[in-house]
Structure formats: structure tokens, C-alpha cells
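Bit of a strange request maybe. I'm writing a small parser for C-alpha cell strings and I need a real example to test against, not something I typed by hand. Could someone generate the C-alpha cells for this chain?
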Amino acid sequence: MVRDFDLFELTLKEQCNIDINDYCIETKKGRRWDRKKLSRTGGIGSVLYGKWDNFEPSNVYSVHLVEIIKSFCANKQEIIDNVEKLREIEEKIRNIAAHEIVSITDDIIRKKTGCNSDDIMERIKKCFAYTGINIKKEYWNSYRDMNEKIIRKLEE
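Reply from user aminoacidic:
Good idea to test on real output. This should exercise your parser:
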């Protein structure tokens, strides 16, 4: 399944030439920010430590990637607006759906986010355009094919 995190990571790679793996270590619990690597770079570490006064290198989360995108894609307001809105939707809807047994309807989505499912899908499509992955129109009806393409791109 495609996550906002994956789209944000690929957006950073394609739009800002930033590979977050250069600032992380791999652990049993997943990728974690590495204090030494963050301190050597200046830019990425400055963003994270500047945004959160009590930032401690831990797991890499989509909220971190959004802040980095905001800093390094500063001249690309459409990208910033789109990733911020997708992150907001993730926070308000996806997390509820993932952790509770609830029915998420278009009405609930609209009340919580101001968007409906079609709006969200359009934002996801825009975000794919930022990643450099060429998704054919017919792929949008096939999540399996799309996910396989994303996995290949992430493995590059």
C-alpha cells in the first residue's frame, strides 16, 4: 500500500535531490534519524531541530518529511500546499481508520478535512507527478500495479 510517507520521500528525492537515507540509520524498528549525520549536513538537521525545540533523533515520520519539503521546496508553493494537505488528511482520517473500527464515508472525510475522496485522489495524483514516476492513466485503477512501480523506484 502506498503511504504518504513514500510519496513525500520520493518528492524530496525528485524535487530537492535529497535522499533521507543519507541522514538515517536502519534499525530493527525501521529507519531512524542519525544524530551524527544530521549534524554534518546543517540543512536537514537545522530544519528538524529548528521546528521542534526538543527534537531527538528517532524514527523518521511523514511530519518530518513535510517540514523538510517546506524548507527545500520553498519556491514550489503548489508542492508545499499539496503535501501539507495530504499530511493533514493522514492525521485526521487515515490514522482513525487504521486504529479504530469505524466506517469512513465521504461525508465524514468532508467534515474532518474539507475534502472528499475524489479531492484526496487528485492530490495523490499530483503528488505522484512530483516524484518523477510516470503513472499511466490506466494504472490509477490498479493499486497493485502502481504499488509495484513505487517499490521498484524506492529500491533504486
